[in-house]
From TrEMBL:
Pfam families for this protein: PPR, PPR_2
UniProt region (Disordered), positions on chain: 1-27
Record-linked InterPro entries: PPR_rpt, TPR-like_helical_dom_sf
Source species: Polarella glacialis
PROSITE patterns hit by this protein: PPR
PANTHER family in the cross-refs: OS03G0856100 PROTEIN, OS12G0638900 PROTEIN
Listed Polar residues bias regions: 12-27
Record-given protein name: Pentatricopeptide repeat-containing protein, chloroplastic
NCBIfam families noted in UniProt: PPR
Amino acid sequence: MPALFGNDARTPCTTRRSGNGTITWSSPLQPKSQELQRLLSLGLDPPDDEVFGVLGSALLHWRNNPKLATILLSGLAKNRRPSVAGQVLRLMAASRTEVNVFHCSSAISACEKSSEWQLALHLLSAMPGYSVKPNEFSYSACISACEKGDQWQIALTLLSDMPLKRVMPNEVSYNAAISACEKGCQWERALDLLNQMVATELSPDAISYNAAISACGTGYQWWYGLSILSTMPIVRVNPDEFCCNAAISACEKEGQWRLAWRLLGGMPARRLQPDVISCSAAISACEKGCQWQLALSLLRGMPELRVTIALISCNAAISACGNEGQWQMALSLLQNLPAMKLTPDDISCNAALNACEKGFQWNLAIELLSDMSKLQLTANILSRTAGIRVCGQGGRWQLAVGLLMQLLEEGFSPDDVVCSAAISACQKAGQVQLTERLFNTFEATAIDSLRFLMRGVVARDSPK
């Protein structure tokens, strides 16, 4: 590993790895310079002349001490000012102030923190113009910027380009690329990269394995995710909380509630502390596995695990109860949220509406829709869809049609299930003319499947 020093070797410049393996450039603790404070006050994208006005005298000092520029650029990175960092590099070059690899890497890091992948690529490609050769840290920061910008193809291209430029990828480079594959649902490529690390005599760490397990989760490959987790002790890498959470989440996506429960229960034996993510994912796994009693048991047991109950956990439990028609329990959980100092959100209410629908409790569902407005929650397409279906069950055609028209006015395209529920409500009330009007309304939406559905309803209700 190269020595992390600028031209003034007496003052080191260090790097740290964050949870996803990306680079954070840092320097000895010190207060913000006046130049940094003034640059930050200029906003996100100031004119070049204003930046030059701030740095005019500082550029002279940087010629003798380039480390001062690194400190300022690191401050811009920390405060997510990628455009300003790029401007500083250009002004340094224009004033014939030395630009080195640490300056460029700090500027690219600013792009990474702001998900500005295009600017990161531009800065990386501009480095030869500054007579600066990119190193593994420059590439890693750029790969991470692409990862945050959901550009997995470009991230992999950069990784493969490194050896061609005689820059050897390190663990951070691979970790960022694996994370990019995870976000792009490319689980097979993520596993290939993990194997490449071993083949190139790099040592995958917990961050590497966590990213690979997460990639398996997004690709609905829970089996591979668990295999990776079980392999870690063999290669002398201890799984951390992030790895276990990723494995539980992988199981959750496929409703593997037994495995999720087992992983959660095994965390203390690994000397790992479960957290909100661990418990919420396990509860959600129980929901998908139709295990509402187990979901409630886990929710109630969270304080014993020294985990504070969070809204995401309660929402998963409400969904678990609702999916199994346990509307009383779902509504009880919803009503108890304020006692736990939690404020219901649209997810909470949608889950409760679903419970009312499955329990044929249309009166309670209508009350809940009314309560949402009192809580200053905007009923979204999921809320209104559930409301329409419940109104259809109860024959409340006026409310069903009203909710349906709200969806249309807000630009949503209701699906066949929603329209069928509204039409069913009208049919039960003998509103044949209204059914025809609904047909004409959906003619204007140009949704073929809905027009076909409406024609079928009109045909059934037309006089013979």
